[in-house]
Amino acid sequence: MTCQLLVFWLPALFLWCGNASFAAETKSPPERIKVMTNEVGDHRLRYLVQLPLGTKPAQGWPLLLFLHGYGECGNDIDQIRKHGPPKLIAKFENLRGCIVVSPQCPRDSWWHVEALKSLVDEVVHARGDVDENRLYVTGLSMGGYGIWSFISRYPDYFAAAIPICGGGNPFNLPANRPDQKQGITNEFMPDGLKKAHQLPIWTFHGKQDRSVPIQETELLVKLLKKAGSKHIRFTAYENTNHVQAWEKAYDDPQTWQWLFTQRLCRDSASFLRP
After folding, report:
1. Within 10 Å of residue 258's Cβ, how many Cβ atoms?
2. pTM exceeds cut of 0.90
3. Which pLDDT tens digit goes with each residue over 111-154?
4. Is 56 contained in some domain?
5. Which residues of 17-39 are buried (b: 16+ CB within 10 A; e: fewer)?
6. How does strand 46-50 pair with strand 99-104?
7. Which residue, among 103, 86, 82, 104, has the nearest Cα to 95 in the 3D structure?
8. What domain count does the chain have?
9. Residue 10 counted as domain residue
10. Would you state the pLDDT for residue 230?
11. What is the DSSP string of 186-247?
12. Angle CA(75)–CA(159)–CA(111) in degrees, nearest 5?
């Protein structure tokens, strides 16, 4: 009887342990909702912080800035979780071992570079446990535009960037372009982007994108290659529309593996290659 009980219970025990281990691996990190201390221009961004799990690396935690698209603008912070890292953080170990900062752009506005830089600087200095050689950025659609503008002004701020279905000048958009009457300006600097030729960038776009033409990304990739970049990667998805591009890119484990192996040597402003 004892042996029969053992035969019955041991598989159940292993199954329970396996499920417990899986749950531990996929649980969502703790979150905080905060507001920038200072207003920059007309932006005092509200943002979601998803905190890392596990043991802090000796050099500190990596930090990932995520920039959402136009559809998530407003004052409902739950909209931030619709796409990208905030939605997928429980799925990928790389994201769970990282501080993920996701600001929300106000309604009828656009990403402003100085506000975004001020936000990241504020988080880094307030925490005191961030590896400043491992600051990363990714974003989709309007967020992709925000990234290209940011790195055209601060080419050695991030260790790596993943802009998805974005572009340079947002006023080139066929529709849903920002409203200049609201004081929104083009912050993208083509000559500044040339200085980012050392920055590791992996950019994605769908060939069937009807919201942001793929030519917007192609122009920027061409510009960087002409400036001598050997660290720009471009994935153009066949038979893929606007939304599907970031769904495919973000759901691929290789995207995150590539991103988190990049490192900036801030003392010399050079990039350490994996």
Report:
1. 17
2. no
3. 999 999 999 999 999 999 999 999 999 999 999 999 999 999 99
4. yes
5. eeeeeeeeeeeebeeeebebeee
6. antiparallel
7. 86
8. 1
9. no
10. 95
11. ----HHHHHTTTTS-EEEEEETT-SSS-THHHHHHHHHHHHTT-S-EEEEEETT--HHHHHH
12. 25
Residue that is written with structure tokens 């201390």 in the block: 37
What are the structure tokens assigned to 131, written together?
């590896």
45: closest CA among 95, 127, 130, 117? 117
**Within a 10 A sphere around the Cβ of 105, how many other Cβ atoms?**
24
- Give the CATH number of the domain where residue 107 resides: 3.40.50.1820
The reply to whether 15 falls in a domain is no
- Tell whether 108 is covered by a domain: yes
Looking at residue 253, its amino acid is: P
Residues in the chain: 274
Tokens 């529309």 belong to 241
Tens digit of pLDDT for each residue in 171-208? 998 877 787 767 789 999 999 999 999 999 999 999 99
Residue 12: other Cβ atoms inside 10 A: 9
Determine the structural domain holding residue 207 and report its residue range: 28-272
Mind listing the pLDDT tens digit for each residue in 216-269?
A: 999 999 999 999 999 999 999 999 999 999 999 999 999 999 999 999 976 655
